[in-house]
Specification:
Helix 1 (3-19) packs across helix 2. The protein has helices at residues 3-19, 53-70, 93-98, 155-165, and strands spanning 23-30, 38-45, 77-82, 103-112, 115-126, 129-134, 137-142, 146-151. It has two domains: 3-82, RimP-like superfamily, N-terminal (GMP Synthetase, Chain A, domain 3); 93-165, Ribosome maturation factor RimP, C-terminal domain (SH3 type barrels, Roll), CATH 2.30.30. The radius of gyration is 17 Å and the shape is globular. Strand 6 (129-134) and strand 7 form a beta hairpin. The chain has four helices and eight strands; from the N terminus they run H-E-E-H-E-H-E-E-E-E-E-H. The chain is of the alpha+beta class. The longest helix is centred in the middle third of the chain and has 18 residues, at 53-70.
Amino acid sequence: MSSVLMDKIAELIEPTIEQLGYELVRVQLFNSPEGGSSTLQIMAEAEDGTMTVEGCAKISREVSVIMDVEDPIDSEYVLEVSSPGLDRPLTRLKDFKNYAGYEVKVEMNKTVDNRKRYRGKLLGIEDELILMSVDGEQHKFSFADIQKAKLVMTDELMALATAKSS
């Protein structure tokens, strides 16, 4: 789906999500492979990176009202509100700072050093550049050039999740 539509939906719902005490992580619309209803996925979290079932329900109720009134999607869809999960997407500059030290997969909008996909250790950020160690070499990527990025499930990431839930 168009990033313009996702940006418009984010603009519509982000103030309400923030009023509820959460941060918007990602908005994505998935088309059904069978041609049925699409799924509008809203990922959000509290400032400390947590999310509860009650929080998802609260956001879902409020976002449903906004979407019904504004009606930005011209087809049927199902609203899904969730936490970003353990192997979360990295969508904001602060995500790259907060998860420094963990393994990530990054896909670029354009070819950088003869490749578009990278997997390695996230080293953090410097200005608007994402620093990564890939195969022992340090790389710097412009945040604007990243198409998508996500954490990779590792023992270290599992240990972080265990520590957060304690």
